[in-house]
Amino acid sequence: MHNMVSRAKQVTILCVLTIIMLILRTSLVLEFDFLENDFRSAQVRFLELDQINSLATTGFETVNGRPVGGSKLNINYDSKKRSQKIYRPIASKRTDNISVDMPENLYLDLKIYNNKKLHKKLDFIIDEPTTCQANENIFLLNVILTAPRFVDSRNAIRKAWADVKVVKGRNIKSVFFMGKPTTANLVQKMAPRVNSESERYRDIIQAVALEENIVSSPTVFKMLSVFKWVVSWCPHATYILISTDSLFVNYENILKAIDENAGVNKRYLYMGRVKKYSKVDRTPGHPEYISKAVYNNSNLPKYCVGGAGVVLSSAFVHRAYDDAMCHSFKPLRFPSGDMYLGIQAKRLRVEAIYQEEFLRAGFEADYCDLKHSMTLGGFLTPTSISEIWKNFTTPIDHCPSANPNNSDISEWSRGVDNSKYFSKCLNIIYNNPSLCNRTPYLVAFITSFPDHFALRDAIRVTWGAPEYVSKLNIRVMFVLGRAIEKETPELINRITQEHEKYNDILLANFAESFHNLTLKVVLGLKWINEFCPDVKFIYKGDDDMLVNFDRILGHLRSHYNSTGLFLGNLMSSSPVIRQSSKYLVSRKVYPFKYFPPYFSGGGYIMSSDIIPDLYKQSLSTKLIPIDDAFCGILAKRAGITLTGTSGFISSGSKDDMCRLHKAYNLHGFKTTSTMIERWYQFRNTSTQKTCK
User: Fold this and answer.
1) Cα 263-269-274 angle, rounded to 5 deg
2) Centroid of chain to Cα 498
3) Is the domain of 236 the same as that of 170?
4) What is the torsion angle, in degrees rounded to the nearest 10, for the CA atoms of residue 50, residue 54, residue 59 and residue 62?
5) Based on the domain organization, do 41 and 137 belong to the same domain?
6) CA 616 to CA 609: how far, in whole Å?
7) Of the residues 94, 112, 130, which one is the last residue of a structural domain?
8) What pTM value is reported for the model?
9) Structure confidence by residue, pLDDT tens digits, 597-643
10) Which of helix, strand or coil describes residue 3?
11) How many CA atoms are closer than 13 Å to the CA of 260, on its beta-carbon side?
12) First to last CA, the chain
């Protein structure tokens, strides 16, 4: 009975297809696109005739370079063989048909462009339909996202990586992809320049999509415009790299990565610098806000960060575009093309492939940095583009390791002795040596700036409240430096009064600054060594977060041993930032391209037995101004294994208290009122029941 119903459904579908084809024969062409080599699924699509350059009434023809069947396409159901037989022309034989036996459990997914209006909206001002020729055999198409005003940068790129045409016998082609300026005045001003540039180089594609503020963060509209152009005018390219006009490209390394991964992932490749553990932001007005109506899951799937470049197989681009056009899913409601592409990949069951050599920050990169990269970003001027290309094309004899081993780090730190320096700058001004008279289970070191009085007070009435932490056998200490630049008698007096009142301030004789957070790490190690060696665990965090100590202690007691533990949100192969920012580490200070694995500063946990080794290594290791990375270097030298966990949350909505019930902490509370309000929501009994 079931088989009869199944066959009846299949016959019904085939009848519907036949009727539709007869009714719409003058305006539509039916195309089959096999999605899997084993033919377990097939896709039926309708293409409008205005997309077709020419269509023969018989025999083989193409639609925008892709094979279709005109009047030669037949679909028959063979009841005797219990299979469907699909006949279609093939490219190598213009008039012959081939037949493929399909298993009975084949499902036909009739996909008409539900998003037909969007499909039409994704139009072009300049489309350059002859840029990609079928006989070019383009292996990699580099679609360089740009904006109309960046003419000089495009000219510099044309003399650099866009001038590369062949790498190891494989053809490379580059095009510049831009949107439309946001105002009528800019459109009028830029149109003649863009048209002139297009006529000269024939490598400009301009979509009607409005330009975003940041080129490296394309909108969904622009991303889909790229896909439509590739599907329409460059379908023969085997792989597509979507990059930006500030991103250096090393084609040789990219091709190597494609070769290494294409065999594993077959047709559908989605590769780049993958972002993991990303929470959906439910805060209205936030740049990355996504409502539940658009995307109901609390976690975003893994996705490639577009600003670092992303490599896609042509098959994936075709399939992703079809998916966007054929479903009622509303793509334009997503805040960025990067996120949406990750969601599409998950829907299509395509795994995002992580490649650490896709990087958004390069700046002072030399030949050695560039040699190990696939992409490197931050080259915002024509001069920097020219200089970085000169660096890349001028080899040097010796390059330090990109990822240093212990020997490299020992050589880098050779002769270092921080003992005298630490004895002076880590001289303690305010302390509570009796904090561990009754040995606590956990000591929490919270880094805070001297003038963050309100945040410290908020912590003392929320997750650091004495009545709360004492029940858990936890002690909280705030670690401060001296506010040298704005150290007034009034400020000194307030800190003194705070210390006398609460006895939870650890203040040492070094200048308070972002770069001296490294000294706070060493101060905490030194303090545990001297005043609290018997404590089980140490938590290190910041003063702008909510901490769920119940969750932390529950996990520590049930999942981990009390020895050899170093737990946090693991950062692997994190690149050194060379640009001018608070995260800058010059090559003279740290010569390697990457830091050893470390934990992001939103919080991490250590068992006390690893503290002596970490402190010992700090005495003979060069200091760097990034405290988290410095701690990772110490752990590497000491042979301590880092254990990654997603329990430390540094992004996402601050309104979702259910997330905190499942996490160790939640980062980003800059105002005391928000911290206190969210804490009481978190502790509310009804909230706890709702979150179970």
Assistant:
1) 115
2) 42
3) yes
4) -70
5) no
6) 13
7) 112
8) 0.65
9) 999 867 899 999 999 999 999 999 999 999 999 999 999 999 999 99
10) helix
11) 10
12) 44
Q: Indicate if the pLDDT at residue 98 is higher than 60.
A: no
Question: Across residues 298-311, what is the average pLDDT?
Answer: 88
In a domain, 691, yes or no: no
82 & 166 share domain: no
Query: What's the mean pLDDT in 92-106?
Result: 33
Are 515 and 625 in contact by the 8 Å Cβ rule? The answer is: yes
Residue type (1 letter), 121: K
Q: Give the amino acid at 50.
A: D
Same domain, 212 and 126: yes
Is residue 554, in this structure, part of any structural domain at all? yes
Domain ends where: 327, 354, 376? 376
Q: Do 101 and 126 have their domain in common?
A: no
How far apart, in whole angstroms, are the C-alpha atoms of residue 679 and residue 548? 10
Contacts of 278 by beta carbon, 8 Å cutoff, 6+ apart: 299, 300, 303, 651, 652
Longest dimension (CA), the chain: 96
Indicate if 20 and 97 belong to the same structural domain: yes
Higher pLDDT, 363 or 450: 450
pLDDT tens-digit series, residues 522-555: 999 999 999 999 999 999 999 999 999 999 999 8
State the CATH number of the domain containing residue 424. 3.90.550.10
How far is the C-alpha of 363 from the C-alpha of 588, rounded, in Å?
Answer: 15
For the beta sheet containing 93-102, the strands, ordered from the edge strand earlier in sequence to the opposite edge, are 74-78, 83-90, 93-102
Q: What's the average model confidence in pLDDT over 654-659? A: 68
Instruction: Find the CATH number of the domain harbouring 218.
Output: 3.90.550
What is the average per-residue pLDDT within 661-677? 86
Distance CA 554, CA 558 (A): 6
Per-residue DSSP letter, 37: T
Burial 276-305 (b: 16+ CB within 10 A, else e): ebbbbbbeeeeebebeeebbeeeebbbbbb
Q: Which domain holds residue 448?
A: 406-683
User: Please, are residues 365 and 232 in contact by the beta-carbon 8 Å criterion?
Assistant: no
Residue 326, pLDDT above cutoff 90: no
Domain count across the chain? 3
Asked whether residue 470 is domain-assigned, the answer is: yes
Model confidence at 8: pLDDT above 70: no
SS3 348: coil
d(CA 246, CA 383): 11
Distance between CA atoms of 140 and 243, rounded to whole angstroms?
12
CB 468 within 8 A of CB 500: no
CA dist 613 and 634 (Å) reads 8
Cα separations (Å) of 479 from 332, 371, 490? 46, 41, 20
Same domain, 512 and 617: yes
Q: Which residue has the higher pLDDT, 583 or 202?
A: 202
Do both 298 and 182 map to the same domain? Answer: yes
What percent of the chain is modeled with pLDDT above 70? Answer: 78
- pLDDT tens-digit profile of 109-133? 333 456 677 888 899 999 998 888 8
The answer on pLDDT for 687 being more than 80 is no
